[in-house]
Amino acid sequence: MRDTIFLNGMKFYCYHGALPAENEIGQIFVVDVTMKVDLSLAGETDQVTDTVHYGEVYEDVKSIMESKPVNLVEHLAERIAKRINSHYNRVMETKVRITKENPPISGHYEGVGVEIVRENF
């Protein structure tokens, strides 16, 4: 399956992190989601009911990112993938990438983060 729906560059100001500074001052998190979905039916019917509504997926991601702070972006990514895979039966696989552009660690980089891939069984 080569069809995908993606939401790239979703930005949320949150207070997640294992370091106290992250919980106090917060930071911007960038979330990218890619879902493998068979889009052939939607391509034929032109009906939103035959695809995955990315506006709804955005709201799911937003609710998780803006929820109670957690220590690890791995935990956030897992929650996002589980939510998508359990709520959208058309999704066969979900990839979630979460980037911290400016974490409180020394060094020069464009961002640090995680990327996970979870299949929907």
From TrEMBL:
Domain Dihydroneopterin aldolase/epimerase as annotated: residue spans: 5-118
One term of GO molecular function: dihydroneopterin aldolase activity
Name of a matching Pfam family: FolB
Family of the protein in this entry: Belongs to the DHNA family.
EC number(s) stated in the UniProt entry for this protein: 4.1.2.25
Protein name per UniProt: 7,8-dihydroneopterin aldolase
InterPro entries: Dihydroneopterin_aldolase (IPR006156), FolB_dom (IPR006157), GTP-CH-I_C/QueF (IPR043133)
Organism (species): Staphylococcus cohnii subsp. cohnii
PANTHER family: DIHYDRONEOPTERIN ALDOLASE 1-RELATED (PTHR42844)
GO biological process: folic acid biosynthetic process; tetrahydrofolate biosynthetic process
Keywords assigned by UniProt, alphabetized: Folate biosynthesis, Lyase
Its job: Catalyzes the conversion of 7,8-dihydroneopterin to 6-hydroxymethyl-7,8-dihydropterin. Can also catalyze the epimerization of carbon 2' of dihydroneopterin to dihydromonapterin.
Catalyzed reactions per annotation: 7,8-dihydroneopterin = 6-hydroxymethyl-7,8-dihydropterin + glycolaldehyde; 7,8-dihydroneopterin = 7,8-dihydromonapterin
Assembly and interaction partners: Homooctamer. Four molecules assemble into a ring, and two rings come together to give a cylinder with a hole of at least 13 a diameter.
Highest taxon of the lineage: Bacteria
GO cellular component, one term: cytoplasm
Pathway field: Cofactor biosynthesis; tetrahydrofolate biosynthesis; 2-amino-4-hydroxy-6-hydroxymethyl-7,8-dihydropteridine diphosphate from 7,8-dihydroneopterin triphosphate: step 3/4
